[in-house]
UniProtKB/TrEMBL annotation:
This is Metal-dependent phosphohydrolase. One of its GO terms (molecular function) is hydrolase activity. The keyword DNA-binding does not apply. Keywords: Hydrolase. The keyword Isomerase does not apply.
Length: 189
């Protein structure tokens, strides 16, 4: 599969399932675009912008679109990482995979952060295990993607504004393309 085919497939999933709400007052696609736009506006790398766009991709591809409403942690961050990991470099997939851990971390180290969360984020935090304990904080801080995961989490919180104007998916194609693993191609005759 070519790089363009991979990206087209991802964009098709956003187009087919991105209109889902997930407890916030924005759609999945709107949230992804707002999060990527926040990263772009902050001067983030192409890898982190791609991670911001894809951080909730697991919500789009798992079979439980209403998991939080049913009090289920569908581990969307792990579902997304499992699908995207073979396609994208760790600089894209790891911050996305760790964005839930970053929320748990920030709630543990910054009480003001917890109080800034939306009701949907507070509920999902409960399902995800609550704020980290001391040992979990230290382990998370040791991650090579700790800083990017925290930045992504901050962009995530900015991406929940109903009706916000953002660039479209196609605008982010270069970032996704830059984050793809090099594809093995067969030699042509």
């Amino acid at each position: 599969m070519s790089a363009e085919d991979v990206i087209d497939r991802i964009f098709e999933t956003f187009q087919q399932r991105g209109d889902r709400l997930y407890g916030e007052r924005v759609t999945q696609a709107g949230h992804a675009l707002q999060t990527a736009f926040a990263a772009e506006q902050d001067g983030a790398s192409e890898m982190l912008i791609a991670a911001a766009l894809l951080h909730d991709y697991g919500h789009l591809i798992h079979d439980l679109p209403d998991a939080a409403e049913r009090d289920i942690d569908a581990l969307h961050e792990e579902v997304g990482a499992a699908f995207l990991g073979p396609l994208f470099v760790a600089g894209v997939t790891e911050p996305a995979r760790l964005h839930v851990a970053a929320k748990r971390y920030l709630c543990a180290v910054d009480p003001a952060y917890f109080h800034s969360l939306s009701p949907a984020s507070v509920r999902s935090l409960e399902l995800q295990g609550g704020p980290f304990k001391h040992a979990e904080v230290k382990a998370f801080e040791a991650s090579p993607y700790f800083v990017d995961a925290i930045r992504l989490r901050q962009y995530d919180e900015m991406g929940k504004v109903p009706g916000a104007q953002t660039p479209d998916l196609e605008h982010y194609r270069p970032c996704l393309k830059a984050g793809l693993k090099k594809q093995q191609t067969s030699p042509t005759p």
